[in-house]
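ugh ok fine here u go
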Amino acid sequence: MDAYVLGSAFLELYPKFLSKRIKESNEFLGNAGGSATNTAVAASKLGLKVGLLSCIGDDEVGKKVLSDLRSYKVITRKIRKVKGIRTGISFYEYKGKKKVYYFYRFPGYSDPENYMVLDDKLAGEVQSARVFHFTEATIRKEERLKEVIDFVNKLREKLVVVYDSNLRLDLWKSKKDAINASRKAIEISKVITMNEKEAKVIFESNSLSDVLRKMLKMDEKVFFIKRGSKGCLAYYDEKAYSAKAFKVKVVDDTGAGDCFSAGVIFGAIRGLSIEETAVFSNAVAALKISRPGGLSAIPNLNEVLSFLKGEGYEELAKKITKPRTNFAEELFPAP
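structure:
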């Protein structure tokens, strides 16, 4: 097993024609959704062996979610069906260039992710993987935060722990709670991905340079900061790296950050350097945003390699196409 991803799995719906608002639409498309779900599918499409740790309701919607995941070869045997609970649903639409989400997850009715059991048995099975990835959705409730931290602490000496902040402040009781929980998650993780806005919130500064100084004080951690059209920044071992964004037409940016995170997982497993991982992750995200829709719009490895070659990164593409060996002994080694 290459990686396990912990987080939400639900049904995500959106207008068939993204130029239309929900209220104007009679036709909708849908697929399994959620940050962890997107990341797991993206990593699988990049050729990794990935399992999703989640819960769904014991209903027809849950069956649809499982079907979608399995169609992309995500391992689902650790997804629990919760009897008497419905699978959550979300919608998204575009108001001009701004994307808006609507989540329908009701406590005790359609919140199966809150029934996840993170016990010693599961920890032992997860340790067979190379990477463990978890998202902000798993720590929004105080009681779940402690459980997730205890679980990750059982893993962190055995594998690489990756945390994706994916911060949604509107789903928290307070901004203070979100910041405190995020910092605890960062503390137990080796690799952290977040966008620039999230970084400024979590590190409580409007200055990116000030955020950088705070990150560099956190020894032995790797930070990837997603900056949209400005590319990304990476910080590791008191050094800063940058990678430019690829110029593509933005059609639908749903799941772009999750695709970036999948690229980071890929880089960690395949022994890419920090710079190579940043470029590769940018490429995965760029291809995703150039296409409409959800899981079907996530690129596979061959598409990413072809894109890299076309953008002048032939050597990186060549390195990735070499026969895969064992898990890289050194995390993000020098090129």
